[in-house]
Design a protein that fits this description.
mainly alpha, Arc Repressor Mutant, subunit A, 6 helices, 7% strand
């Protein structure tokens, strides 16, 4: 089978991979003094629009509910979220941000923003558009909606029934 792939594609794939690792490392470093990980911030971001149950939150941020549970335990222990058992279904918990959670989320957003390069020669809008095209061009067997640092489409967009989360790699690292 021959490929019609642009010869620069392999180099681009590698650059995307390197860029992702570098951005993740910078974000992890920026969040460390707050005692947070990217995974914890993603969970907090998912709750920014209001309370959800754990299954809804997992779907919103596109992770497995079991993986999310470990992160929520740590966020609850730190006082950033509350989990209240639902009266209509005792197996479900309503998860919501506390005032401390809102404050730490704002601090995390500032730290993440400060971790990005401040280079006026980078066309962020163009880069974002091109990366979105790349993500959307991935084969259907891969999740096409994984944009973990984009604001969650809170309660407005649903994945097809039965679609699974991506299980963000590193979700439970560093204890948060």
């Amino acid at each position: 089978m021959t490929s019609n792939l642009d010869p620069d594609a392999r180099t681009s794939y590698r650059l995307i991979s390197v860029a992702a690792r570098l951005v993740q490392r910078r974000q992890d470093d920026a969040l460390a003094h707050l005692g947070l990980t990217r995974a914890a911030v993603i969970a907090l971001e998912g709750l920014a629009g209001g309370p959800l149950n754990q299954e809804q939150l997992a779907e919103t941020i596109r992770v497995q509910s079991q993986t999310l549970g470990r992160v929520l335990l740590r966020l609850e222990g730190a006082g950033y979220i509350t989990r209240t058992r639902q009266s209509t279904d005792r197996r479900q918990f309503k998860v919501e941000l506390t005032e401390s959670g809102e404050a730490i989320l704002e601090a995390a957003r500032r730290e993440e923003t400060n971790a990005y390069p401040d280079d006026p020669n980078i066309g962020w809008k163009v880069l974002s558009e091109e990366l979105a095209k790349f993500v959307n061009a991935l084969p259907a067997s891969r999740s096409q909606e994984v944009l973990p640092f984009a604001p969650p489409e809170h309660r407005t967009s649903r994945r097809p029934h039965g679609a699974r989360g991506t299980g963000l790699r590193g979700m439970d690292q560093s204890g948060h």
